Amino acid sequence: MEVIVAKTAGFCFGVKRAVEQVYHQIEYGIKPIYTLGPIIHNEEVVRDLEEKGVQVLHSEDDLKKLKEGTVIIRSHGVGKSVYDQIKAQGLELVDATCPFVKKIHQIMQDQNKEGRRVVIIGDENHPEVVGIKGWGDDKTLVVKSEKQLDGLPVEKSEKLCIVSQTTFNYNKFKDIVEKFSKKGYDIITLNTICNATQERQVEAERIASQVEAMIVIGGKSSSNTRKLYEICQRECKNTYYIQTLDDLDPESVNSVRSVGITAGASTPKKIIEEVHTNVRIKRV
Fold this sequence. Notes:
By secondary structure, this protein is an alpha/beta fold. It contains eleven helices and 13 strands. The protein is 40% helix and 19% strand.
């Protein structure tokens, strides 16, 4: 059997940096240690950190109850009000926000000062988008699909700045921007999808088009893994979305001659290697 393992599979720069910062705090930081939300969307990593004493705060209400300790802001980032809250409570702050997300936070502030309404292309309920929106103003809008454009409360005279969730599907981003442009708005478009996301999506699409079965590894709540699965499924009908080796039915790949493997940005290398080794396929 032939296998093609994506070179871009696994931790991206921002996720690797965030996870390393948590382990550093476990070894050298001020106890107790908390992360505001799971540090990344991977249950295995979060479980390991919990076993080492790291507690997950699931809401700002949980944050407000703290009297001491270190709060780690995860790679997805948070809104300005959360920074203010941590400072007001006198807690230790470790900011593990991905630098590419941090850049969007600055764009939000700069464009608002210039009088532009910012439109974020992404999933309004995704933690990264919630955090980005938290650096905007009352006029900030979030758009996920082309259908939403027809009902947006935007005047033709308004100046707009369009940014994107870093893990958004690049082709969908282009389609939405094109529809905005056709409506005649005064627009500045900033493609803030990170290079790692674009490269991962392009590579996954290419591999899926060449194989008889495709395996996509990642947490079920991982936005970028879900998008990889959707991209691969369009190219290869036998595409399987798994979190760990235990989720993979060996029979699903035993009868094919070629298999591709990719993984989301929150998937540890160890899990990718376990899948590769145990399905007994040869890396090429």
